Amino acid sequence: MSKIQILSKQITELIAAGEVVERPASVVKEIMENSIDAGATDITLEIKNGGITYIRITDNGTGIQKDDIANAFKSHATSKISSADDLNAIVTLGFRGEALASVAAVSKVELLTRAAGEELGTRYCIEGGEQILFDDAGCPKGTTLIIRDLFYNTPARMKFLKKDVSEANAVAGVVDRIALSHPEIAVRFIRDGKQTLLTPGDGKLSSAIYAVFGKEFTDSLIPAEYTLENIKVSGFVSKPLAARPNRSMQFFFLNKRLIKTATGTTALNEADKHSSMAGKFPSCVLNIDISPDQVDINVHPAKTEARFVNEKQLFNVIYYCVKNAVHGGDSRPNINVAKAAVAQYLNIADEARQIRLPDKKEDFWEHRLADGTKIHKPQINITADDAIDEIVKDLKEAENYSAAACQPPNIVSEPGMAGENGYITASETKPAAKPVMPENITQNYPVFPQEEDTAPPEISVTVIGEVFRTYIIAESGEQIYIIDKHAAHERIIFDQLMAGKTDESAQIMLVPVTVTLSKEEYSAVLENTDLLIKAGFEVEDFGAGMVIVRECPMMLDMGSVEEVLMELAGYLLSNRHELISGKLEWLFHSIACRAAIKAGDFTSGYERERFVENLLSLPDIRYCPHGRPVMIEMKRKELEKSFGRI
Ligand code: ADP
Ligand code: MG
After folding, report:
1. What is the rounded distance in angstroms from the CA atom of residue 452 to the CA atom of residue 509?
2. What single-letter DSSP state applies at residue 357?
3. Which helix (H) or strand (E) holds 400?
4. Which fold has domain 462-632?
5. Backbone angles phi and psi of 108, in degrees to 5
């Protein structure tokens, strides 16, 4: 008997359906795209149980003519193209004629539709690809499609579905993107009986962004537009200061179709390179408007990949679009200082800010109220309004600091000499003398919390100083230590976290922070709240893609909570299937890295001493969590050998 068989129509349909219909979100994408292609100006989507049991889409588009209905549900049946040539210039979102057939193959579908000019509409039911009902029905012009019990006949696919809430969030992610790509359409999304999105459909992209992501995100954007020959790119990019720790808020649309474009992402990042801080990524909502014959969208059944005839040109237009927007649109303080200084303003001002120290020891690492309640250390926030005065001051301080840094070693800056506003400035230097401790600083200054019953280590160490604001140099007996202060501090914090001390160090935030996430990240975070608690974050659902952080690790700055959470969200999303322990370790890395003092941060002589003492009392701290050494030790003999003394 021959071994090769032609598969039955039913099986081929199921196989084909697998390519297009992966989960409720992919059904929603296809069906909403059909409504858009039908010219709808109003689309309502309702789902129940993550869309697994119920998806309803109602539009006010053209409707489907009675005699087209049965065909619409056949494979490769479409009204959008008719010849091979049409494939060279696709102007609709759909063109493969696969979606309705695929959906009908794996669910129970009910269609209500009436085309313009028809007096009566039609009710049509199809289950697992088999027609069940075809009847007249009274209904408004347009189309309603109800999809029940997705994958009821394909248990293999059903198994891969996630919890309802995750599927619902994936659907919400699709709806967000559809709403962003078509601001002229009023999109309404009802999730388990609750309306969670309504865009005005006024044609303004900013209105759609506002409806989807809220005020804060919208306020962080600058309009962007650029045309180069036959490509126009328009939309919004984020202001440099609003850059995020990952790329989850970068949305590219190609002729109003959501696409993934590596060229777009690279161009965006290149254009933003020197604007946002290292390790941060701009957000964007950009539509690429291009003649359909310059692009091939028929690359993958999901139609989210595209090939451009001229990728280089695409790169250029996005690059210039973003560059112009970022340099022209972001409101910078209007300052009147030397040109070079202005160019360096952001860097220098930042550095200068870091060299101002709080006058109380507690402020540096943590902050406690009199009754022992821990609160965040206060933030030094400089608004654009304060900036002009600050810049001049900061530049001066930075200049003085560099000058001080070049002085012979007997000129050092010291803590305890409070300048204006209680901060010490590095410019306030004076010849070295016996360190003067502020009254309220005791000798037991807990740079890192220690067990109370542990006797302080008997280490006699002299801190010589610090080079490149990164490496602390110390001597003890016959040894020289060169310590990478960031790496060492990071390791100490990481070990504390790993040792489960997060409970003690988690703190209730006086002002909880809300964080806007993409719907997929939002879902990943909500799925991992238990894990986040272990890492010191208490995070709750705040609705519509937002989470609220009520508790965070003690050692984190209030100002970095939002950023860390976004970073964690991105990680949780891309590592959903990893073992929990691996995830937790990554979370601790991320927190430790953020909470540790940075290379380049100013550290006073007093803090250096406490830090080194503490570090040397912890002999296990040898490598940072990334495996780099925290300290290089050199024996006196080695040094003497190098100088030919012995
Ligand atoms: P495609 O979108 O690739 O053409 P589909 O299987 O998604 O394939 O849809 C098949 C056909 O059904 C479409 O070409 C269109 O003519 C019709 N159709 C589907 N949904 C709608 C709708 N909401 N309104 C009007 N016509 C629709
Ligand atoms: Mg379609």
Report:
1. 26
2. E
3. helix 384-405
4. Ribosomal Protein S8; Chain: A, domain 1 (3.30.1370)
5. -110, 115
Output the CA 44–ligand 1 centroid distance in Å: 17
* CATH class of the domain defined by 5-198: alpha beta
Which of 21, 26, 34, 60 should be mutated for ligand 1, with most atoms under 8 A from CB? 34
pTM of the model: 0.61
Q: What pLDDT is recorded for position 503?
A: 53
Tokens of 567: 């970073």
Contact criterion met (CB below 8 Å) for 422 and 363: no
Can you give the length of the chain in residues?
646
Average pLDDT over residues 269-274: 80
Q: Could you report the per-residue pLDDT of 78-99, keeping only the tens digit for each?
A: 888 777 777 777 778 887 788 8
**Rounded Cα–Cα distance for residues 407 and 413 (Å):** 11
User: Where along the chain do its domains lie?
Assistant: 5-198, 220-328, 462-632
Q: How confident is the model at residue 103 (pLDDT cuts 50, 70, 90)?
A: very high
Q: Judge contact between 288 and 264, C-beta under 8 A.
A: yes
Let me know: does 449 contact 420? Beta carbons within 8 Å. Answer: no
Structure tokens at 11: 């099986």
Domain 220-328, what architecture?
2-Layer Sandwich (3.30)
Task: Return the percentage of the chain with pLDDT > 90, whole number.
Answer: 28
Give the strand pairing for 142-148 and 54-59. Answer: antiparallel
Ligand nearest to the CA of 98: 1
Give the ligand with the smallest distance to the CA of 77.
1
Of 282, 280, 279, the C-alpha closest to 267 is 282
Which residue type does 499 have?
A: A
Over residues 467-487, the pLDDT tens digits come to: 888 899 988 888 888 999 888
In this predicted model, which residue has the larger pLDDT, 251 or 359?
251
What lines the ligand 1 site, CB under 6 Å? 30, 34-35, 38, 59, 61-64, 72, 77-80, 94-101, 143
Residue 411 to residue 241: CA distance in whole angstroms = 36
